[in-house]
Amino acid sequence: MKVTSCVGPSCGRPYQINRFSDTTIWVEPGKITCPHCGTVTEGEANAVFMTHALSAAEEAGFSASSEGAGSAEDTPAAAGEPPQE
Fold first, then answer.
1. Which end of the chain has the lower number of beta carbons within 10 A, N or C?
2. pLDDT tens for residues 41-72?
């Protein structure tokens, strides 16, 4: 699991990305879609990406931790939750 921010110019909200190497899932491989605004970015062509919006509390925590910390990518969405791929 990874948390990142949308690159859409009018969005910028954080969301969770889960990467799966099993491309038999009926989702277009290599596409990462923001769950807030629908902006699509490119991921690895041999992987499937599923995205999920963060809860209001998680989003506030992500925003607070990313201020002054540079990048908050790879930050678990919830405290105590181990990173997953």
1. C
2. 999 988 889 999 999 999 998 888 876 554 44
